[in-house]
Each structure stands twice: as C-alpha cells, then as structure tokens.
Design a protein that fits this description.
2 domains, Aminopeptidase, alpha+beta, single chain, about 290 residues
C-alpha cells in the first residue's frame, strides 16, 4: 500500500473524511483550493486516510484512521521526507501534526521513535460580535491603520519586517494576503505597536492571528487591532471568527474572552522532541463539549 499525491481538482473527495476538522479552517481552505498544499491519500477514488501538508512547512493534518502497518510506515516516510529538509538546514525547527482519531495513538511509538514527549493543551474560541465602543480604547497619539500595500511598502516603519513575517506565516505571499485577507495595526510615530490579521478566509469564516510587540503589551493594543478586524469581518459578511491559542497563554485567552469569544473546544497536544535540530509536535485533538 502506498500514499499517492492527490490532484487539487480532486480535493472535494476529502470533504466527508475531514468533517472532524471543522474547527481548523486551514483544512476547509485547502479542500476549496484557497490554500496551497500537498495532499497524499491511500486511495485515489475513496480515500480513508489523507495527509494534508500546507505550504508553510510547519504542520500536517492527519485525517482518517488505519491499523495497516504498511500504511503506517508509508506515513512515517512521508513525514520525514517532507520535514527532514528543514532539519538539514541546521536550525531549530518544529511542526505540528493535527489528528482527530485516538486510534492513531498506539502507532506514535513507531512514528515518533527516539523522541521525547511532553503534553500541553490548546483552546479554540468562537467570536460572532464586536466589542461595543471599542474605539474608545484608542489614544489620541495612536493611529489605527488598515494593513494594505502602501503600509507594507513603508520601509521606515519599525517592526515592519516582523509584520511581514506574520503575513507570511499564514499566507503564501504578501500578494495573496492583500487579495484574500485583511488586517489592522496600531502605529505611533514610525513604530508599529501591534497588529491583527485574518487567516484562512473561507466563505463566512476566518481565523485570527494577533501580535503585540512586547514593550507595548497591556496597553490595549490587542483590543484595538482585534476589534477593528472583527468589525471589518462582520461588515464583509463573515459571521464566524475562530481564535486558537495555547491554554497557558493567559493573555491571549483573556483577550478572546474580553472580545466576546466563547470557548468552543479544548484539545491536548503531545510535543515530540527529536534529536538534532528537529522538533516535532503532535497535536492530539480531543474536543469536548463545554459544560455550563
């Protein structure tokens, strides 16, 4: 049994198989052909297992389930084939593996041979409304700006390289971001204090990427940039906004809640530390209904 590269024109075959990944908008964007990826399947006609590798090289979505040892070894080879070039660059590297079925867990000893495991947790919040009177948080000395081509061309702005790096973290290019997504930043003089970007815009949904420079945190920058983004998203017909964060990232979860976010799911993460410069993180998706 071998994994085969699936043509983008055939991604719709994965729709039902990927139902358990509804909270991960990147998967929907890949299937819709809106996010570049390499997709491998066990069967070209009726796939029961799929590996979705987004262009960024930082994660893979492991879909379906199997007990076939030959296929397990194929998956192991595919993972190391895709990610090992980053190890050869001689720098620290990490990636995430997302999966929804606990039936994969007995196979991790083979897939993660020789790696140390640690466990952490992540959270997913849903936002459907904008914070009332959020503009009142904006001091007179700060300028709220839409992230557009003009701003991204202003080389004199401090922290512009960090903003562009953030753009590239979830968009294959600046041009793709400008065409498909949107974001807002706060500027003081010639310094960018922080920003909030939409990610994986798909139909009536998007997700959020947010960053505030360390020396400007706890000043309300995140409230302003995220509220501006949420307001813009709602005005564009986006009704479901997703917010992923580490559970121990209390500032991020507190901000999501302040913005009106509702905790939708928590999921465990097993971090696998490999030898050399390769760091692998396996994400174990164990979503549970929130009990009130």
């Amino acid at each position: 049994m071998h994994l085969m590269l699936l043509s983008p024109t055939e991604y719709a075959k994965l729709q039902e198989l990927c139902d358990l990944f509804d909270n991960y908008l990147a998967v929907s964007a890949i299937i819709a052909g809106e996010t570049p990826a390499q997709v491998y399947v066990d069967d070209m006609n009726i796939p029961t297992v799929a590996l979705l590798f987004p262009w960024d090289g930082h994660r893979v979505y492991l879909v379906g389930e199997t007990h076939n040892e030959q296929l397990i070894q194929e998956i192991k080879r595919a993972l190391f084939s895709f990610f090992s070039p980053f190890k050869k660059q001689g720098r620290s590297y990490e990636f995430l593996i997302y999966y929804a079925s606990s039936l994969w867990e007995p196979h991790f000893s083979s897939l993660c041979e020789g790696m140390e495991t640690r466990v952490a947790r992540r959270q997913y919040y849903g936002i459907t409304q904008v914070l009332p009177r959020w503009q009142e948080y904006l001091p007179a000395a700060w300028l709220l700006r839409r992230i557009d081509a003009q701003l991204l061309g202003e080389q004199q702005l401090r922290y512009l390289p960090e903003l562009i790096e953030e753009v590239h973290s979830e968009s294959p290019s600046v041009q793709d971001f400008l065409a498909r997504k949107f974001g807002y930043c706060v500027q003081e003089d010639h310094t960018l204090l922080g920003w909030c970007l939409s990610e994986y815009n798909h139909e009536d949904r998007c997700e959020v990427g947010i960053e505030t420079m360390s020396q400007y945190r706890k000043l309300g920058v995140g409230v302003i940039t995220a509220s501006a983004l949420i307001a813009h998203a709602l005005a564009q017909g986006i009704t479901k906004i997703g917010w992923h964060c580490w559970k121990d990232n209390e500032p991020s979860s507190a901000l999501a809640i302040k913005l009106g976010g509702t905790l939708v799911a928590e999921y465990a993460v097993q971090r696998e530390f490999g030898e050399g410069n390769l760091l692998i993180e396996w994400l174990v998706d164990k979503e549970q209904p929130i009990r009130r």
